[in-house]
Amino acid sequence: MNSKKIIVFGATGTLGAHIATYLKKVGYDVYAVGHRKNDNGFFNDWQIPYTSIDVADRVQFASLPQSEVSAVLHFAGALPASMEGYNPELYVSSIIQGTMNVLDYTLKSGASKIIFPQSLFDISYLFGTKVPIPADSERKAPLTGDHAVYVIAKNAAVDLIEHYYQKFGLKRFILRLPRIYMYHPNSYTYTNGKRCVISDRFLINQAIKGENIELWGDPHRLLETVCIYDFLQIIEKSLLSDLDGGIYNVGSGGSTLKERIEEIIDVFSPKHKSQIIYRPEKRSSQQFVLDIRKTINELGYVPQYDWRTYLMEFKKEREQQSFKKLWGTEEDYN
Question: Gene3D superfamilies given for it (predicted)?
């Protein structure tokens, strides 16, 4: 790419903010775009222009750069993890209509590449074993549950992007994302529209207090584990790639539930360490691991963060609060 001007949609989100600031650090000319009306001056501190638009409204795209853009990173859209109650229309408007508008803008701006996050749940029918799931597995949306319409919308967006590749030659890098692990002051998520504590944040807080920690079900269940910095490596390598792209799994090989809890205790417990209480009669975690050979072979991805190194980064960021101006503090979410 000759131009290094890139547009990051969803820039105030957990992934988008990291993407925008990281790419600025490595030399890209970043334009941040978010739904929030006010970023509290966060991006100005990074010398990154910030524009607020609703991606479902194509008229608002006129306020963005209209030429010499090299790539668009489309991380905007409603998420089940942040949706209180249930409003599936938001998935249709922000993801399907939003992606159509972003694609039209991408072509008009001169960009030759789009990067888009795909839901992990398009392959949820393959969950339940330790067999790595290939990147090009058939995409199937679940037809029940709080993720159904969300995944239907994401699959439609991926199909739209593929159409623009076939018709216009727009290079597309579709990144299938499990949960990307990072520190965020908000330790809550939404499941079926109800607010609840993120499981590993609950375990970390127990370890800090030196309380006993229950390990439910099979302790050897394998869970995909991706640190934000490995994810950012894949983002950068996608931008640098001369390939036309495709679907790529974002993963690191995973870690077992037992390994996770042992490392949480080791990193966060005081001298009086938490004890693990095994509860095999309880429901086991859903296990899965992604096959990342395509990501390694085509993009040159080299995973660098295991669960322990992620926890050390979490601990450091919890002290530094690098995104405090954008996201606030833990007290703001309690």
Answer: NAD(P)-binding Rossmann-like Domain
Q: Return phi, psi of residue 288, to 5°.
A: -170, 155
Identify whether 43 is part of a domain: yes
Q: In the chain, at which residue ranges do the beta strands (DSSP E only) sit?
A: 5-9, 29-34, 50-52, 71-74, 113-119, 171-177, 180-181, 188-191, 194-197, 213-216, 222-223, 226-227, 245-249, 255-256, 276-279
Cα 159 from Cα 49, distance rounded (Å): 31
Q: Is 115 strand, coil or helix? A: strand
3-state secondary structure 155-189: HHHHHHHHHHHHHHCCEEEEEEECCEECCCCCCEE
pLDDT, one tens digit per residue, over 220-231 is 999 998 999 999
84 CB-contact burial (10 Å; exposed 0-12 / middle 13-18 / buried 19+):
exposed
Domain count, the chain: 1
Q: Residues 5, 70: contact at Cβ < 8 Å? A: yes
In a domain, 207, yes or no: no
Three-state secondary-structure class, residue 98:
helix
Which tokens belong to 90? 């938001």
pTM comes to: 0.97
Q: pLDDT per residue over 167-187, tens digit each?
A: 999 999 999 999 999 999 999
Assigned domain for 208 exists: no
- Residues with Cβ < 8 Å from 214, sequence gap 6 or more? 276, 277, 278, 279, 282
Give the mean pLDDT of 158-164: 99
**Number of neighbouring beta carbons within 10 Å of residue 192:** 12
Residue 163 belongs to domain spanning: 5-180+226-251+289-304
The CA distance from 171 to 173, in Å, is 7
Q: What is the CATH number of the domain that holds 73?
A: 3.40.50.720
What's the CA gap between 101 and 95, in Å, rounded?
A: 10
SS3 of 31, please? strand
**CA angle, residues 96, 158, 156, in degrees to nearest 5:** 45
pLDDT digits (tens, 9 = 90+) for 284-319: 999 999 999 999 999 999 999 999 999 999 999 999
